[in-house]
Amino acid sequence: MKVAVVQQPPVYLDLERSMARAVELVQEAAVQGCGMVVFPEAWLPGYPTFVWRLPPGAGMGKTDALYALSQANSVDLSRHGLQPLQEAAKDHQVVIVLGYQEIDGSVSGSTLFNSCAIIDADGRIANNHRKLMPTNPERMVWGFGDGSGLNVVDTAVGRIGALLCWENYMPLARYALYAQNIDIYVAPTWDSGETWLATMQHIAREGGCWVIGCATALEASDIPEGLPYRDDLFPNKDEWINAGDAVVYKPFGGIAAGPMHREKGLLIAEIDVGAARSSRRKFDASGHYARPDVFCLSVNRKRQVPVHFE
Prior knowledge:
Radius of gyration: 19 Å
Order of helices and strands: EHEHHEEEEEHEHEEHEEEEH
Strand content: 15-25%
CATH topology: Nitrilase/N-carbamoyl-D-aminoacid amidohydrolase
CATH superfamily: Carbon-nitrogen hydrolase
CATH architecture: 4-Layer Sandwich
Strand order of the largest sheet: 5-4-3-2-1-14
Largest sheet: 6 strands, mixed
Helix content: 10-25%
Number of strands: 14
């Protein structure tokens, strides 16, 4: 099975145009024979990198303005916000793993979440996971997720699970996925560089699974001219904001494709899904190498809601 890892930027903080670009990228991958397409963290409508560039308190007014723009361009599942990509998945018979910014119109209609959707080849959303713990200044713009999305799900290309960015540094979150017979572990992120790549290889070895890591390759020149405070945020017009470093690791370690550094396009890898389970003969973290008499993990998968109407 071929997998395509997207290393192209969205139309930053423009949901409509970014969605159209995403559909085109899915089609491009399908033409190349790919059965799975993976997008980075918060690809729709673009990762809020401004939170790392505006000091808390001193940059509050700027953060408010950029948050409002980000909010207006977030995806609402209660309004079928991923329908174009669901249709693309069905039309091209591909599985899509998508990092996106979600707004929950069914509750407050205001709070944003860093989410990851797994869309099966029939167009169905097989799983939606919200990042459990936004990292550092991300808490200025994102709410906390819950355990309801900590699932590994059957798809047309195998059993897939996903954790977002630094969730992959959470040993118990990883273990929750390992314990669900995972074939393909996807890590959409904003991180890149040698430390992150080492983490991806570690997970491939620890989990005995295929690991896909991907961040948005983004240059200052990709940021639209009309973005509020653009010149303050990105004064160096030649800056690589994020190098991308899309990568695919084999079960138990070893690079299958990438890393794709400071380059834009699709990283294509051919993977043997069945190799994941057979690789765990040597080390199965949640199987023969587990010690449930000593260690036991409990996961609360209940959806957490602030109000119950009776």
